[in-house]
Amino acid sequence: MAEESTEELPSVDELMQRIAENYESLPRQLKSVATYIEQHRGSVMVDRTSDIATSCGVHPSAVVRFAQRFGFSGFSDLQAVFRQAYTGQGAQSPSYQQRIRKLIDEKPGRVSGGTVAREFIAACRGGLDELDASLDDAQFDTAVKMMQQADNIYVVGVRRSFPVASYIVYALQHTPKRVHLVSGFGGMYREQIRSVKKGDVVIAISFAPYGKETQYCLRVAHHHQAQTLLISDSQLSPLARYATTQLYVKEGSAFAFRSLTSTICLCQALFIALAYKLELNVEESKDTGGYDD
């Protein structure tokens, strides 16, 4: 009986897609549970209902109601979806980052600088492992093709995301593409994004709690029919509705600080993949006798 039940379970991606499609219609408490599940895919299969409820600031019954909202008899049945995915992957324990945080919380006495460094390095490594396991190849290829065909590429990222936005602009400027950093210097986000048009691409890098400036730029891009690439941590974010293509990153964290390692890695990969495509086009043009125009 157990095997038959397992076969009928949806995949994690199918479940998360259903949650995303119904997110806006969920009551506030169930939205909190949905966000928790999206952000803790690696550990939700072993998390206790009471711990999830505490993290979400809701009663445990809300966690059960959430599962029932999506056709499960209880929360343990929803967790089985994630257990099935873990069994199929045969990868390392999905609660790796959770164990790091717990170890830090329980570590008595003072912590040396070297220990801090190693804990943070381990958290970054865990984030990279998760990026490797969860990267959507089809979405990544679509993102590269969008940039390849773009007339202009605009990049926006505020506060914590600003260093990443600055880096990808620096990297993309080593290609023939026209690249613009929407920096907002002088408070001029509106002025810097207003020229975006159909045929352009806007790359938005944003993580919870999602900068209002980035949301504004994505809305403008969507209104002007530009294509949009969202690099974020959740398909339930308010930016997802304006994204043509989405790439998700769950950074490792230690001592309550999230790293940028995985996001930088993903952006470097985007640049390298784009440069590779553009160079291939140049080589093909040379083979046919050079540029016609």
TrEMBL record:
<keyword id="KW-0804">Transcription</keyword>
<dbReference type="InterPro" id="IPR000281">
    <property type="entry name" value="HTH_RpiR"/>
</dbReference>
<dbReference type="GO" id="GO:0097367">
    <property type="term" value="F:carbohydrate derivative binding"/>
</dbReference>
<dbReference type="GO" id="GO:0003700">
    <property type="term" value="F:DNA-binding transcription factor activity"/>
</dbReference>
<feature type="domain" description="SIS">
    <location>
        <begin position="143"/>
        <end position="285"/>
    </location>
</feature>
<protein>
    <submittedName>
        <fullName>HTH-type transcriptional regulator MurR</fullName>
    </submittedName>
</protein>
<dbReference type="InterPro" id="IPR009057">
    <property type="entry name" value="Homeodomain-like_sf"/>
</dbReference>
<feature type="domain" description="HTH rpiR-type">
    <location>
        <begin position="13"/>
        <end position="89"/>
    </location>
</feature>
<dbReference type="GO" id="GO:0003677">
    <property type="term" value="F:DNA binding"/>
</dbReference>
<keyword id="KW-0238">DNA-binding</keyword>
<dbReference type="InterPro" id="IPR001347">
    <property type="entry name" value="SIS_dom"/>
</dbReference>
<keyword id="KW-0324">Glycolysis</keyword>
<dbReference type="InterPro" id="IPR036388">
    <property type="entry name" value="WH-like_DNA-bd_sf"/>
</dbReference>
<dbReference type="Pfam" id="PF01418">
    <property type="entry name" value="HTH_6"/>
</dbReference>
<dbReference type="InterPro" id="IPR046348">
    <property type="entry name" value="SIS_dom_sf"/>
</dbReference>
<keyword id="KW-0805">Transcription regulation</keyword>
<dbReference type="GO" id="GO:0006096">
    <property type="term" value="P:glycolytic process"/>
</dbReference>
<dbReference type="Pfam" id="PF01380">
    <property type="entry name" value="SIS"/>
</dbReference>
<dbReference type="InterPro" id="IPR047640">
    <property type="entry name" value="RpiR-like"/>
</dbReference>
<dbReference type="InterPro" id="IPR035472">
    <property type="entry name" value="RpiR-like_SIS"/>
</dbReference>
